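User: Hi! I'm a student and our assignment asks us to look at how structure tokens line up with a sequence. Could you show me two examples?

Assistant: Happy to help. In each example below, the sequence comes first and the structure tokens follow. Example one:
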Amino acid sequence: MSNIVLFEEKHVRRAWDKDAEKWVFAIVDVIAALTESPNPQVYWRVMKKRLRDEGNQTVTNCNALKMTAADGKQRLTDVADTEQLLRLIQSIPSPKAEPFKLWLAQVGYERLEEIENPELAAKRTREIYQQKGYSEEWIEKRMRGIAIRDELTDEWKKRGVKEQREYAILTAEISKATFGMTPTEYKAFKALANPKENLRDHMTDLELIFTMLGEASTTEIAKKKDAQGFPANQQAARLGGTIAGNARRELELESGTQVSTPENFKALTQREAKKLRSGKSKAD
């Protein structure tokens, strides 16, 4: 599964090759980061043909991998590991080439550190959320939610569920039963126009809590029922989401407040900033 890292505000998609224990990066994203090309795909296509004509083996060794495209769909894109990228960069005239090489080295080093000490990955994720302006209370729930999600996907993998498409379907089942909306519908509800935005990064504390409950319940049911294969795990996902959905409705009935809210990250951080400003004013 791909994720995104930033090089000078440019998004670069990457995926961890577990067998080779190394990162692979989307070549078109690297080209977009290094050049002013209005169409990195065309730039890469022309460059690839030229290198092949020159007998450059680096290109023929580049594999294609499914990664999340700008429209949110999984599409095949050429990828390269660090060694391949360093060779390709030599053929890209760019003043950013040297800074990018240093960035690549740092990204690789950080991953090796995280393999040796997994707590570093959690620490770096926490620091990113702090820099973005999230409250400590929210970050605690988000980090716990990440751990619960990882436990669920590990369970799915052990039980014969195929990654990507089937994971997405099961996740939608849990969300629909928990909130009455699939993740896609939830993004529209929160007015998130960018398909790359992570829905959970725009959730309130309560939304995160019920998301965790739905996924933790699904994991427990899958274990107890020894669900094997997609159909059995789909049923477990519906049951797990239903448990969270019932709890949500009960809370809404007693509190008179809806758990699902159209508030997104911008609104959440502005609210926290307002609290901080208010606290400073009182202190003054």
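Example two works the same way, sequence first and then tokens:
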Amino acid sequence: MEYIQITENNLESEHICCAISGKKDPQVIAKKEWMQERLKEGLVFLKGDIRGKCFIEYIPAENAWVPIAAENYIHINCFWVSGSCKGHGYADDLLKRCMEDAKGKGKSGLTVISSAKKKSFLSDPSYLAYRDFRLADTADPWFHLLYLPFEEKAPVPKFRDCAKHPQIDAEGYVLYYTNGCPFTAKYVPLLEHIAQENGIPLTTIKIDSREKAQNAPAAWTNYALFYNGSYVTNEILSEKKFLAMCGTIKKEEDR
């Protein structure tokens, strides 16, 4: 398998594996606009030369859009090998290239946000453990900050205090999101529409800068849904799932 790195020169022509729709699709447009700025900050998007979900995206941790303190580390934003791409060693290839790149840049190691058990949109903890990633820190309700140090003396990264115990002062549903994940460009407007149709109080807050992301009230900034101040989920919800979740929460409140 050949691997292709997305650059400013080929960003327009190459597809991004997690959103393979046409160039005019809002998901593709939003993600590529976000990437255009991040490439200037050291973002690397490396993908298999195949039409499928087979890629790794990483950036110097100082420029990452997550609330972590990980000086001189490389942070993996997204690492996804799925479907027919699985079982061929592609994940190992991508991670190896990421490690080699990080070492070549004199970095202390890699970081990635995962969980104790596999959850939607988070990297697989079992695979990362197999590749010797260690637990650096935790944040409520289920987030694990994992790291792979290149030397034993490397400093241990951590979540920033703002994300350790996610809580906000707001009523109803509040959704924080970024365009770091292309799916938000599709599903956030759908949620806004279905919430309005059903009289569900929903406020959406787009995180539009690294500084805001690094001081966000939750560990996973691509999508963080709260209800009455408490954290609910990082899963990007379809209209059906959102309505079902709202119904479940209402029944629990009525008991």
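Here is something you could point out in your write-up. The chain has a mean pLDDT of 95.
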